[in-house]
Structure formats: C-alpha cells, structure tokens
Amino acid sequence: MIEIKNISKSFNDRMVLDNVSGVFKKGETSLVIGASGTGKSVLLKCMLDLVRPEAGTTLYDGRDFYVGDEEDKKDIRREMGVLFQGGALFDSKTVHENIQFPLDMLTEMGEGEKKDRVEFCLQRVGLEGTGGRMPSEISGGMKKRVGIARAIVMNPKYLFCDEPNSGLDPLTSIKIDELIKEITDEFEITTVVITHDMNSVLSIGDKIMFLHKGKKLWEGNSQTIMGDTVPELEEFVFCNKALSLMRAGR
Amino acid sequence: MLSVIGRYLIFLGKLFTRRESLKVYWKRFIDECIGIGVSSVFIVAIVAVFIGAVVCVQTRANLVSPVIPVYVVSNIVRDMTLLELSSTFMCVVLAGKVGSNIAGELGTMKITEQIDALEVMGINSASYLVLPKLLAAVFTFPLLAIISGFLGIFGGYLAGTLSGIITPEDYIYGIRYSFIPFNVFISIIKAIVFGFLISTISAFQGYDTRGGALEVGQASTSAVTNSCIAVLIADYLLAELLT
Ligand SMILES: Nc1ncnc2c1ncn2[C@@H]1O[C@H](COP(=O)(O)OP(=O)(O)O)[C@@H](O)[C@H]1O
Ligand SMILES: [Mg+2]
User: Fold this and answer.
1) Where are the alpha helices (DSSP H) in B69-181?
2) Above pLDDT 90, what percent of chain A?
C-alpha cells in the first residue's frame, strides 16, 4: 500500500500540486487522471523522490520515503519498478541488456540466473526473441513493453507507469493496459498508472483519482465515473462525442 | 554566474559521493577511454601534423636574417609544440569534439528520462555516468598530448625538409638544442587539467538540460564555449604557476 499525504509542490512560485492526498492499495491498478499539464508527472516524481515536495509525505507500507539519505532509501527503491513516459530505455544498450541492467547493478545473481530472469520477463511481455535488438530498432509499443519488462525484472512490490499508452494506436494501447493489469493481479503489485486516455479509464480503473490544476477533485472507480461527479471531471470524461451520446441515452 | 559556479561545484561533489562497485566502473572506464581517447587520435594527429608544418614554414618565412642560424626554426617548432600546441590548442579542438559529445549524450539522457530511470533504481547517475568519462579524459588526454607533441615536431620536419627550407641535420640539431625536459612535463600537466575541465564542464551542461531537442543543442554549444574559456583561463594561470 502506498499513501500520499498532503503533497504540495510549486515551481518558481507557481503551484503545481496543491495538498494532494490518496491511498493506492496492494493488488489494485489505481489510475491518476487529468488533462495535460495538471501535474500528474510531477506527482509521480514526488512519489519517487525525484522531485522533493515542499510539504507532505509518501509512505510505502508505512515507511516514510522522505526520511534518511539515498542509502536508506535503497531498500524501498529495490521494490519499485517504473515505466517512464517515453520508455526511458538506455540507447546504448540492447533490449536484453536494458532489462538485465537492474539485476547487474543491484543484485549478486549469476549470469545464467540473470539470463533466465530476463528471458522470463521478455516472454511475459510478449517479446520473445527480440533481446538482441537496439531500442532505436523497435516500435513505440515494443519500447513500452521493454520498459515494463525492465520495471518488473526485480519483482517489484510497487509499479508506476507514466502514460503507458501515449503515442500508441488504440489497439496497442488496450493491450498494454491489459498487460499492466494482468501483471498487477498476477504478482499482487501496488500499481499506479498515470493516464489521460478514456479507454484505459473505463477498462482498467480499479480506483481512479482525478487531478485538475494540481488539486485532487474526485476519487472513485470506472463505474462511478460515468455517474454524477464534478463539472471539471464531466468535461474531461465527456469531451468524447460517443461517450456523451451514450450518456444522453442512458 | 556565481550560482552556476556553485551548482557546478555541487555537481563535482556529487560525482565523488555514493559510488557503485569498482567492477561497474572498470567496464565503463574502458568504454569511455575508447569513446573519448581512441576515437580522438585521428583528429589530434591531423591537427598536430599540419600545425607543426605551418609553424615551421611560417617561422622560416619570417626569420630571413642571415645572422640567425637556420636550426632556430626547428627549435621554435619544438617549443611552440610542446608548450602550447600539443596541450592548449589540442584541448580547444577536443573541447569541440569531446565536449559537445558528452553534453549531447547526457542532455539526451536527461530529457528522455534515462537519468531519472537510473535514479529510481537507487544509482547515483552523476557518478555512474560522469565519473568514468572524467577518469577517461584525465587518463587519455596526456597520452593524446604526447602523440600530438611528437606529430607536431614531425609535421615540421616533413614540411621543412620536403620544401628544402631546412636540412634534416639542422632540424634534428635544432630540436635537440637547449632542450628542457620539464616542458614535456608541463604539457602533460596541462592536458590533465584541461581533460578534467572539459569533461566536467560539458557533463555539467548536459546534466543540467531541461526541455527538448532544442535545449540539448544549446547545452552542447555552451559546453564547447564554456570549456574553451575555462581551458584558456587555466592555461594562463598554469603559465604563471609553472614558468
Ligand atoms: N522541473 C520543472 N521545473 C519547472 N516546472 C516544471 C517542472 N516539471 C514540471 N513543471 C511544470 O509543472 C506542470 C505540470 O507538469 P506535468 O506534471 O508534467 O504535467 P502532466 O500532468 O501532463 O504530466 C507543467 O506546467 C510543467 O511546466
Ligand atoms: Mg506527464
């Protein structure tokens, strides 16, 4: 379980996050949704302590992530996997080396064991046989899959995905969403997915948090989001014509 | 300006704290020696041979007085090469090649969140990425300076003898005449200092990138400009200090 409490962050006097709190439960895929530029990625970076908020705390199963130095955080960091917006694969390494990288740096595993683990992860994300390619040689959807494989290679307790389906076609998007959800269920991970894609919201949102201009305005799930919410969220959800027609006819 | 220098010093501090295991660094160091040192041999060699040749021809053209012996030409080529060309001039060229490369690489890693990806794994990205580059520069620049010094003198020999300005015997006599071995040492010290400045300043510029492809380009440009300025200032200070 991850708890965030009263997180506030501003850049150059501009408030980007305003007193955001929430709970993300184990085994659930929780979504953070909102328009572009509302501070979703900044919230994620605060949770990962890449950006330190001015106020608030993030607790990982009760452990405060903002106390102590980097050495103290190593234990929690080992339990995290992150899929960044563009995949953030290391350009100079092959797909296989990318996935193996956390094992090389953070574990004492033998070569054979590492290879098996990487093969397992590659196969789990449906990319058997592509380990030898470079990141520049694979498609956007494949990059995200490799990113997911790298994120789960250490068997994380916490998985974070920043816009896992941005820049992908609708079909590939749904496949990536489903993959994240399956992995979450299978390994009982606490997963936080940042998205602005309504398809994901409707299909994988066990729990949804809506951010608007740095504030949390609403919380619910994929059923309650279609009902009565707040005006800002309705605007966000029903900007799609098909959805608004569907709603008028309900 | 002061705040930039402050952030640069903090960045330097970060390089040396919380390092990964030595095994990790060894492989990265070898890779960077190839990327920074070996791949620069060609440009360094070309520059050294031609500059040595030009100095030889120019000196001869400007020293036509019959009272000055001709071996002074190679004497001047030797001192110019060892004192300035093989270290300062070479490093200004390398600031362009190595500096822009380092800043571009790190800048791209920054904006594509590859550096964040390292940080969330608990790896000190500054030290993991930059320390091997720094060590490789400090190790290979003096070697390049030695190659450059040798080839500069050799370039002067080729130009001088092939064009008939000076006989091979006079040239060899000139480069041996009142030779101060300490000058070779100065050249090596300078290359070490400049290697440190170029690699860390360029890495700092790349590491500080925010935004997109445009900012990566700007980071490369300022890496080259700032490294050159730092090299020239350091050259002056070292000249005061060592001579
Ligand atoms: N390091 C930073 N420095 C200054 N401003 C930033 C920084 N990171 C993000 N911002 C600003 O914070 C706001 C929220 O950004 P972000 O969280 O990336 O939005 P999104 O919800 O689309 O992910 C944006 O207006 C952005 O310009
Ligand atoms: Mg974002």
Assistant:
1) 72-80, 90-94, 100-111, 114-120, 125-162, 168-176
2) 69
